[in-house]
Amino acid sequence: MTKNQKLLLVFIGFCMLIVVGLVAFNVFMPKPEIKPDDVQVLERSVQEEVAEEPKQEEEKVEKEYVNIYFIGKNENNEEVYKAVKRVYKQDVDGSKIRFAVNSLIRGLKPEEIQKGVYTEIPSASQVINITEMSDKVVVNLNSSFVTGGGTESLYKRLYQLIKTAKLNTHLPVYLFIDGQRADVVGGEGIMLSQPLSNSSLDN
Where are the chain's structural domains? Predict the structure, then answer.
């Protein structure tokens, strides 16, 4: 073995001793405790995105309608009572008879007027109350309903009420004016047979 080879072996052995010493030092020496404050957390550089909840499709509920009678003209230009459909919601508007009569007294909507229908019910008319019992319905209106317009107008508004009421309940309907049963209405003393029917004004 040459002198250079001996020197190389000695150098390698020395390096191995250093490596073994370092390993032993790391294993047996106690590690310093790491405190939470010593750990640095970098602030996020990307904004967090929150996923939107998916929009639920609106329930497709079949609309229910109530017919309310106003006056218009047919194809022969003859005056007739015309039913106008209004969307009915029981949980909002109550019974059909209540919704129908209230709608009739409140009058026409602008889009309905554009279709060529009108009403003979005076604008000052009001529903005082509608009482529904097991055997009948009492519609109590204020006196403006039977005031003014003449006999022909009074007949027409009464028929509007009769047709609307009878179409929206199977119970007998009675008309009261200011809390009194209206067997005679208007200044002309028109006889009104009750409960209301299409023949109530045939006297």
Answer: 64-191
